[in-house]
Amino acid sequence: QIFLGALSFVYFAKALSGSYLKSTITQIERRFDIPSSLVGVIDGSFEIGNLLIIILVSYFGAKLHRPRIIGAGCLIMSAGTFLIAMPQFFMGRYRYERFPSTINSTVSLSPCLQDKSQTPLSALEKSQAKINAGCEKEAGSSMWIYVLLGNLLRGIGETPIQPLGIAYIDDHAVEENAALYIGCVQTVAIIGPIFGFLLGSLCAKLYVDIGFVDLDSVPISPKDAQWVGAWWLGYLIAGLISILAGIPFWFLPRHLPSPEGRKDSSSSSEHSRFITEDSKDQGTSSWQQAKLAEMAKGKSLEFSCRLINFLPSLKNLFGNPVYILYLCASIIQFNSLIGMVTYKPKYIEQQYGQTSSKTNFVIGLINIPAVAFGIFSGGLIMKRFGVGVVGAAKLSLGSSFFGYLLLLSLFAMGCGNSEVAGLTVSYHGADPVSDHEQALFSECNSGCSCSRNDWDPICGDNGVTYVSPCLAGCRASNGTGKNTVFFNCSCVGTFESSQSSSAVVGPCQKGNECPKMFLYFLVISVITSYTLSVGGTPGYILLLRCIKPHLKSFALGIHTLAIRVLAGIPAPVYFGVAIDTACLKWGSKRCGGRGACRLYDSSALRYVYLGLTFVLGTVSIFFSVAVLWVLRKKSSPQDETLSANGERGACGTKSRKDNFVNSDQLIQSTYWPEKETRL
Question: In 3-state terms, what secondary structure has residue 599?
Fold first, then answer.
């Protein structure tokens, strides 16, 4: 029970830190001034770290002290989490693009610098000196690499938790209770992402340099595209939780006494069969030594047999058309789902003008519970109606079909572009412009010395956002920080709907229809998440029932490995590259070069994000149809009525059934060590 509680807490800790990383994607992008494609590489580094040692841990971990290996993994995971947060303490204060008068400047400057001589020389020199100092510091560092290495280390630390923890439970629990215990662990793991996104929501409300700067002097708000929350704070909390989760494992025994009601079957612990416990009689040492020598020979022979049987097993597995088709469907669908989940916070922020805090709160409190309920519903349907293998394939296919059909409706639930002069509308209020670089300049700001690289948005009284006070042609300003007001803005006055020529700090809000569209999006998104999740359990049962029993662990290992290599790593990268193509205005680094995107084309972002998700999902449906077709072709009418209680008649021909029987007999009469973790 202690081990079960400790393992459940570890599952909670790793799920919390993983979901918190998803919630800080946009914060990391802005803090380090990097594009979405590079953020995708950082996100995929977790899977890379996991894959580096998964085979070594799974195979050799069973021979060592498994609880302590899990405890060591928790320490490594916490070290990686702390490493992700470390750049915040070495990069200095966060610098955002702002006109000097909004940063408590004692010098009254005109945003539209018609002549640089109007600015005191000392002010220009100080400003240039600060830029040069920041450039020197920035040029010598790429701090995002530490985030990537930290996530890589987090993946390495997470590796032993699942294979060794689940195998430990299965080895020492009563057979009837093992499934219940594993289900409890998985249930607690679902709670972790809820708290992870809620923690992300809380930290996104706080300014990145909280505790180091006067918050009243910060001119940007959480709705600004340059706002960065206290992303690092959540990683410190997650790292501390990981340390606490690992402590109990250092005090747990290597083996537990076998339960009285447990039979000496193939599911028994390998240690209870092959390792002599200290509590046994010490007077039989000679007999034990002979037994150990015999065991060593058996292990050597077993290892040789494994090498000989590996290729035939692999050929047998990949010769199963149902397994291959389902593997292809899973890989493509997980590409769709991983890309969608990774950039969902970013999509909501950019499409509906929501803050990072509200976005994470909505995902954590609404979307994730819907996914958990969908997974539970799928298993409940399988049990309640006695769904067989063909029925599981139908349920999985129907779940995907209706889920992606609902996703299709989200194309109509988008918001229009924000009205940004020179980017989405002209300075005279006309339709969208074509050449965004040249359209930033107009007759109304031709007398100003402006840069097209700046992003210091202000909202004019006409409801139009201007890229900077200079490009708005503002001649005067009053106030400091968030209370700064700009006057005599020539471009604001020339707009066709303009009645005055003043502006305030920050971008204008999106259109009035956006809040309503956001509500519709939430409703459809929750239903879609639930519908897609219903097919998770039936798909898993389909995978287990359509392979030979002695290849089950191997097949699950290949399935997990393929999804991580072909979906978990590449999906965030190419989704990020595709999303970058929808950018209208890129930020600029202090030393030159392109930074993070400040403004997206809403329509292009919607079609890229939802379109890529829908296309991948549609391709996976075709493979699911092929799976169902092969199953129906090979099954008899009686097979379709079989319940999912271990019968496998629908998965092969009569000869395959005979092989299954032979395999079952082999399993009952023969035992091989490390059966749970031999991949």
Answer: strand
